[in-house]
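MODEL INPUT / OUTPUT PAIR
PAIR INDEX: 1
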Amino acid sequence: MKWLLVASAALYLFGSFRRPLFALGLGAGLAYLALRGISLGRLPLVGPHDTIAFFSASIGLMALPFLFSPLLRNSSAFPWATGGTAAVFALLSLAFPALAMPLPPILSTLWFELHVALAFFAYALFTIGAIMGVLFLAGGERRLLDLQYRAALVGYTFFSGSMVAGGIWGYYAWGTYWLWTPKELWTSILWIFYTFWLHLRLRGAGGDRLLAWTGILGFGVMLFTYLGVSMLMKSSHSF
């Protein structure tokens, strides 16, 4: 089934020239996740392979409305950047083994699946927002900042929902809504970061470049929260 991830990555890259191919790349990524989910009997959301593949598909899914937006219809840089990013993570997932272990009882709850899925939708939108920031700095088009703000705002909403679902899952799993482990700490840092970032817009036009740069910085905070903490620190979360 892993050939679907390779096909997904290739189609994402070709989607830079033909947008329908980008949608096919997303379809290949979703098909892989669906087949893997059927073989596991659950959503594939445990371990680095599954979560990175899910992250890649989330980028493609969240980018689709922007890709076909009239505001970006003539942009070749946005599909190239988002397609390239989704392709990188699709291929990166292949570096990790696909675990086939049964779901531990502590994770066997809808709240866990909702918590993880919403988090990755948010991560994807933060990634798209960072791409908009890079494109704004390169070309200076103000509409890109507006789209960056929209992506981050929806991502922030998803992330807030993920934290609520995670708290409920934590209560059922450990008897408490919050544990001050590294993962929870960095989750709160990421949420606070975007809480302040969304208010930078109030600075007006004079803060455009600051808004773009901090949006890019947010991608770094997000990536460390997701991969850095999981790889470098011990926590109640694996990935």
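PAIR INDEX: 2
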Amino acid sequence: MSRPVPSLAARLRAALDAPRTTAPVLLSEDVRDATLDPGEAPMPAAVLVAVTDRRAPGLILTRRTDTLRRHAGQVAFPGGRIDPDDDGPIGAALREAREEIGLDPAAVEIVGPADRYRTVTGFEVTPVIGVIPPDLAFTPEPGEVAAVFEVPLDFVLDPVNHVESSAQWQGVERRYYEINWGGHRIWGATAAMLVNLSRRLDWPAMAAA
């Protein structure tokens, strides 16, 4: 008698809980430890890594509006600061996804938090992985989100597509990761978190299983 096939959420959870073999990506220009004032703590934030439950899973991303003060026009996960009333990173990620793209928290099966990522702007971001049904209808918040789109998880987690680039920023050379898919440029903190997630899940091995 054949064994039942584990659900996508169960496979992701097992990979997330497995002993890790690599450390999180730490690009020096993305870490503000050296510039934080004594006693100053990074701002806690969370994002939702929403994976669609398909035979070939996808990942939900947003493109920010061009009018935002920070990260205008950039590709990002739904997410933001952790408020005092939130139930930690998971509560914040679900709230922000509901506010930004109209995703019902009840539609999300939480897998768990992944490696935190410290940004150059002083945020410490916890990616929260969750599995959602495919083909949901999203409602972008017009003041923040210009578009919601789905990318193939195989593509964005494949190390072959993780390109390390550099640029001058405020007089110094800043290194960052970049992933290009379907005309969308995914870079900076979002790309770095995807690189971390690929390593944490050992995605090439998991995808081939």
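PAIR 2 NOTE: DSSP finds five helices and eleven strands in the chain.
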